[in-house]
Amino acid sequence: MGSVKFSSVLTEEQRVERVIYKVLSSRRWILFSGLLMVGTIEVVDDHPTAYTDGINIKLGREFIQILNDKQLLFVLIHELMHMAYRHTIVWRSLYERHPQVANMACDFVINLQIVDMDPHGNEVEFPTDENGELLGCYDEQYRDMDAKQVFNKIYEDNGLEDGQGTDGGWGTPSPNGPNKPNSFDELLKKQFDEHGWDEAKALTKEQEDELREKIDGALRQGAQLAGKLNGDVSRDIKKLLAPKVKWEDVLRDFVKAVCKGHDDATFKRFHKRFVGVDIFLPTTIAHKVGKVLVGLDTSGSIGDTLLGRFLGELTYIADEVKPDGIILLYWDTQVASVEQYGKEDMHEIASSTKPAGGGGTDPVCVPVWMADGANKDVVEDVVAVVMLTDGYFYGGDGGSAFEQLGLPVLWCVVGNESFVPSYGVSVYVDKE
User: Fold this and answer.
1) Confidence tier at 242 by pLDDT (50, 70, 90)
2) Domain positions in the chain
3) Among the four given CATH numbers 3.40.50, 2.120.10, 2.40.360, 3.30.1340, the one describing domain 247-429
4) Do residues 173 and 100 touch, judged by C-beta distance below 8 A?
5) Phi, psi dihedral angles at 220 (to 5 degrees)
């Protein structure tokens, strides 16, 4: 980090107040103005750079001294965007694998977006050291990726391996990886802020829900102000503010639609209620409503709590719709386990299921397994497929293989709003 200090008649606190005013008055940044009220923003002496736990922001006094005003505004916007995306909550699973790579992944995503919002540097400037080197994570190769995609690419490119222990799974670069450990060390130096993952982890479910509502309200307020000032609202923030569809409702409607029994009229047996008055109406014969096959991604992205919620909702829907059966397929790169439930034991799904697998992620294994003649008796009468996954695959989503089955497919996608299936329909499932 550089040591050049910018002299000013203003104190560090006054300089921070000035860039806060810039957020409140700029058409470009007013979108984030409501977030200024969510937590506290303070200048501290005991922190070397910048920090946020997703609620509060701390700016190191000495760090402020080496930044000009445009760079200081960049840093403040950077921390506010961590809050907007709720990174310390949404990507906690990445932190538990490797805290530093999780930090970098979130930073790469945000910094690209900030530069895009002010491409000519009229109001913000990327922080640099005395040699003009960027003090932060910036790389065009990560454009249009979310934090998990960036995390996975850094992991793969540096041959990282998950470590052991209770510190959240620190990873170490492999000497045999595509990049040597030294290049990873250089990458680590690109960070200019820290994220309070542990502080966020201490929040209760109720506190997380309250924070989500506060942040959502703050962003909507900012978006309204931006609209009045003809300001910009980035595509990514628009996505955050888009009306949310409850995945439970979509799943219920899907199962109802595909399992709706069709009744045929027949005169082979007259309707008894009207025979006595010489009115001969047909009775109806109900056909089977069919079975639903549910493919559950066990690559590690679907936690036990979410799986329990999903299966609980599925059980509730099954009790209402009463399909002929539910087949659970646990899969990673292949089908690891098959469980069959009939009408008499569907209510036991959530309590009796035993997840299996946990390797990579290749959804094509599901339609391949279904098309295998050896499994014909199991998949007979299946009328639809439901896939629960995070949508991050090493290859494709197996769309052509699913299409060959000729069955409707619903993808319930966890934490990955960018996923669009090549076959079937999808609904976003919030991790929380």
Assistant:
1) low
2) 12-241, 247-429
3) 3.40.50
4) no
5) -65, -40
CA distance 23 to 26: 6
Among 77-86, 267-276, 343-352, 423-432, name the most confident range.
Answer: 77-86
Q: What tokens were used for 136? A: 């932060």
Q: What is the pLDDT of residues 310-344, one digit of tens each?
A: 888 898 888 888 899 999 999 988 999 999 999 88
Residue 146 has pLDDT above 90, yes or no: no
Of 327, 432, 340, the residue nearest 387 (C-alpha): 327
More confident site: 376 or 161: 376
Average pLDDT (27-53) is 92
* Most confident option among 120-124, 154-158, 428-432: 120-124
Hey, how many other C-beta atoms are within 10 angstroms of the C-beta on 386?
Answer: 22
Residues 87, 54 contacting (CB under 8 angstroms): yes
Both structure tokens of 247: 């995945």
**Residue 352 burial (CB count, 10 A):** 10
Which residues are bridge partners to 386 per DSSP? 294, 410
Give me the residue label for tokens 């089908």: 335
Whole-number average pLDDT of the chain: 82
Angstrom distance (rounded) from CA 178 to CA 163:
19
What residues pair up with 78 in beta bridges, in sequence order? none
pTM for the structure as a whole:
0.61
CB atoms within 10 A of CB 97: 18
Radius of gyration of the chain (CA): 27
406 Cβ contact list (under 8 Å, min separation 6): none
For the stretch 281-302, pLDDT in tens is: 445 444 457 899 999 998 776 7
8 A C-beta contact, residue 367 and residue 392? no
